[in-house]
Structures are given as C-alpha cells and as structure tokens.
Design goal:
CATH architecture of the largest domain: Orthogonal Bundle
Bound molecules: 6-phosphogluconic acid
Number of helices: 19
Strand order of the largest sheet: 3-2-1-4-5-6-7-10
Number of strands: 10
CATH class of the largest domain: Mainly Alpha
Number of domains: 2
Order of helices and strands: EHEHEHEHEHEHEHEEEHHHHHHHHHHHH
CATH superfamily of the largest domain: N-(1-d-carboxylethyl)-l-norvaline Dehydrogenase, domain 2
C-alpha cells in the first residue's frame, strides 16, 4: 500500500523523535532502521501514533509504502553512512523521487550529492534543537531545488518549531545552502557557549562565586536582554547537584570540550570566504586548548596558576560584555552567510535565517527577533551597524573592554570575548596598520601596494638593494 507521505531511514535519537513528530502532525510515515530490533522497539514507544507509522523490514518495503513521487528522509550519521544509504536507495527509487538528508552534513557533500543523484532529487536540511526539538519542533534550514522545497515544505513547516504563529522552517537557496546555514548556526552555537563559559570562569575564579550563585546570575540574565536557551540551560547546569558527591555537578565534569566538527567547518569555510568570524574561530580553538588537559596541568606547574581573584568587575559588567560579544559574533556570522551567498549565488534571505533561528534551535534567543528586524531594514548592512544594535554596542563595548582587560590582568583566559573586542576595535579604526604589511610585502617580494595620495595600484617603494 503506497500511502505514506514520507519515508524515514534511521531510528536513532533524532530520527525516532522526528518520525514521532511527523506522525503526530497527522502525516503518514514509513520507517526503516538498519537493525530491525530498534524498529520494533520504536513502534512500541510510538503508542497511539503507531497508527500513522508503517514499520518496514527492508528498504524495498519502505519504498513500497510511500506514495509516489516519494520523499525519503535520511536521519543517519553524517559522512559515509549517508552515501551508503543513497547508494542502497537509488536503485529502488524512480525519477522524480526525492532523498532528503537531515543530518549535520558538510555542505560540500550536499553539493556533490546534489550533482550525483541525477533524476532522483536530493535535498539537504539542517535540523537543530536536539532530541526535544526534533520531537516537538526543531528549527529547519533547507537547501535544494525550489520545486522540491515546495513538495516537502508542508510537512517540514508542520513539524517545525513555532515562533508566534510562524513556523521556523525555511528554504535558503539551492544546493548545500541549507546545510551551510546549519554549519554557521553551529559555529555561532560554539561561540555563544564559549563566551558563557568565559564569563562563568570570571564568576568562579575571579569573583569566587559558587555554582549555585552563578546559576542565579544566569537565571537573572535570562529574564533580560541576554534571554536565550543557552543562558537558560547554563543556569540549570550550574544549579544542578551531583547525585554521587552531593556537590555541584559542574565540579565533577572534566574541563575538556568535545566536538563533532561543525564549528570547525564554520572556521574553515570562513577562511575560504575570507570572512572574519574571529569569535567563532576563538571558540573552536578554545575547545582544542581545553582538550589538552595534561599539557595544561604541566604548564600550570611550570608557570604557576593562571586565574587570580579580582574585585574590579561587577556582575553587570559581565552581562554588558556578554551582550556586546554576542552582537559582534552574530554580526560576523551573518556577514559570513552574506559572503557565502555572494560566492555561491544563493541569494540568501538573511532576515529569514534570523527568523528561523528564533525558536526550536540551540541558539534561539530574544535578540534574534531584533536581528531579523535589523536585517530586514537593510540586509546588506553589517548587523553591528544597524541603529538598534549600534546603540547597544555604544552602551556595552566599554564593559567588554573592561572585562577583557581585567581578565587579562588577572590571568583569566577569555579568548572569544577578546576576539570580539579586537574585531570591534579593528572595524572602527578607519586608518589601520596593514600599510606596514603592504610595505613589508613589497620590500621582500615586490608585491606592490596602492598609494593613498593618488589611488594608484601596483606601486613600489624606493627600497635600497
Ligand atoms: C543542534 C546542534 C547539534 C549538534 C550538537 C553537538 O543544532 O541541535 O548543533 O546539531 O550536533 O550541538 O555539536 P558538537 O558535538 O560539535 O558540540
């Protein structure tokens, strides 16, 4: 019976949650998993929603259960498993059918797969929000042929998070545009998390506050301009007690951050685009530093403990510094999306990206609605130059400077906040220092420079031989 609206491959955490979400919204979904035991277990978990779900024992059964033209959503780990599933499905599908990759794919892979799948359509969607989001409403960032988007838009919008009546799912361009937006989302996610961790470090090591007190600070911030999912969960994490020791859970968590690589991809792609995303780059590098625990312990023995107590900062300084850092980071992130859109001819709707990020995803925050409005006023203008955000930056950059300076004076590492401040200072210096670099390049390699006085290019200095 070819009656189901969509097929779904991969009943891991995200796949299972999405399948239940699809079924709950009234769509019929056929599901297949590599191991049949998991499919049986999943059908038990589905309860009454099982009426909308067809479990398939084979890929042939899965394909047969979907109404043509078929759409099959892959929820398998990024990389080779996606290629393997495409290879297994392709002979079973017909021209006009569609494979959708809902994993955290590298957008280059999505572009390649788009070119390779021929008459079978291929579509890449970034899905954000973890298990809870996938089950009850993720943010969905889609990319591929517009006609294919029209086919799957009703299902994706129905299962997406809702922001005041608007679904957080949208199409951002052909090819790998959707997965590219998801990659930048994750880069910003790394940066937001790192800046919060840096402020946590000042509260803990500089101001001597306990985890519970720090949790209360985050709770307060979450009621203000910094309202966001990540500040909210940071408060919860800080206030949570460890059941084994009875002390704060943060005190027993190893200080080495893992990563699956999407933040790193953002930094790599930014370099290809020559787009400055210095806050994200600092956050990726900070995770790499964090993982060198043995080396850090040796260096502490050799040079002495870094962090020293400080009394020169207030909690309000930290709130303002985090606000400034966040605006600078998002200004860079949207700038990177604009650069990628120009490079790839995506004609990306940046205000729509901000709108999709307002709910469902990990970086959702109160500020994103204002960002969407500022980008809509003038999508070509850097976010930090929009009057709304420029006014906030004018109020807060002094605190960012004070926090970075005091942290530096007291040996507390704040790489992402420092990167934001350096970017801010660099961008507001009309006469920079790259004239020295151009002079050096010309001196040793006759690379040529442009003259300020007459605007001519390719000029050389009167260097001695
Ligand atoms: C999301 C997240 C998610 C990501 C995790 C882990 O938007 O739901 O970005 O897709 O996989 O956050 O990422 P790292 O392991 O790289 O920290």
């Amino acid at each position: 019976m070819s009656e189901r609206d969509i097929g779904l491959v991969g009943l891991g955490t995200m796949g299972a949650a999405l399948a239940l979400n699809i079924a709950e919204k009234g769509f019929g979904v056929a599901v297949w998993n590599r191991t049949g035991e998991r499919t049986t277990e999943f059908m038990d978990e589905a309860g009454p929603l099982a009426a909308n779900i067809t479990p398939a024992a084979t890929l042939e059964e899965l394909v047969a259960a979907i109404r043509p033209p078929r759409a099959v959503l892959l929820m398998v780990p990024a990389g080779d498993p996606v290629d393997q599933q495409i290879a297994a499905l392709t002979p079973l599908l017909s021209d006009g059918d569609l494979i959708i990759d809902g994993g955290n794919a590298n957008f280059h892979d999505t572009e390649r797969r788009n070119a390779e799948t021929g008459g079978i359509g291929f579509f890449g969607i970034g899905v954000s929000g973890g298990e809870e989001g996938a089950r009850h409403g993720p943010a969905i960032m889609a990319g591929g042929e517009p006609s294919l988007w029209q086919r799957i838009e009703p299902i994706l919008k129905a299962i997406a998070a809702d922001y005041e009546g608007e679904p957080c799912a949208d199409w951002f361009g052909p090819g790998g545009a959707g997965h590219f937006v998801k990659t930048v989302h994750n880069g910003i996610e790394y940066a937001d998390m790192q800046m919060i961790a840096e402020v946590y470090g000042i509260l803990r090591d500089g101001m001597g506050k306990g985890s519970d007190e720090i949790g209360t600070v985050f709770e307060r911030w979450n009621a203000g301009r910094l309202q966001s999912y990540l500040i909210e969960i940071s408060g919860i994490v800080a206030k949570t007690a460890d059941t084994a020791s009875g002390g704060p859970i943060l005190d027993v968590i190893v200080d080495a951050a893992g990563q699956k690589g999407t933040g790193r991809w953002t930094a790599i792609e930014a370099q290809h685009l020559a787009a400055p995303v210095t806050v994200i780059e600092a956050a990726v590098a900070a995770r790499n530093v964090s993982s060198r625990r043995t080396a850090r312990a040796e260096a502490e023995d050799l040079f002495g403990t870094g962090p020293e107590p400080l009394s020169s900062l207030t909690v309000d300084d930290l709130e303002a510094a985090l606000t400034a850092g966040k605006i600078l980071c998002y200004s860079q992130g949207f700038g990177m999306l604009a650069a990628a859109s120009d490079r790839h001819g995506w004609n990306m709707n940046l205000p729509a990206v901000a709108r999709v990020w307002r709910a469902g995803c990990i970086i959702r925050s109160g500020m994103l609605d204002d960002m969407a409005a500022a980008l809509a006023e003038d999508p070509g203008r850097a976010l930090m130059m929009a009057p709304f955000f420029a006014d906030i930056l004018k109020d807060t950059h002094g605190s960012l400077r004070k926090v970075v300076a005091e942290a530096a004076r007291h040996g507390i590492a704040v790489p992402a906040l420092s990167a934001g401040l350096a970017y801010f200072d660099g961008m507001r210096t009309a006469r920079g220092t790259a004239n020295m670099i151009q002079g050096q390049r010309d001196y040793f390699g006759r690379h040529g420079f442009a003259r300020l006085d007459d605007g001519t290019e390719g000029r050389h200095g009167p260097w001695a031989d």
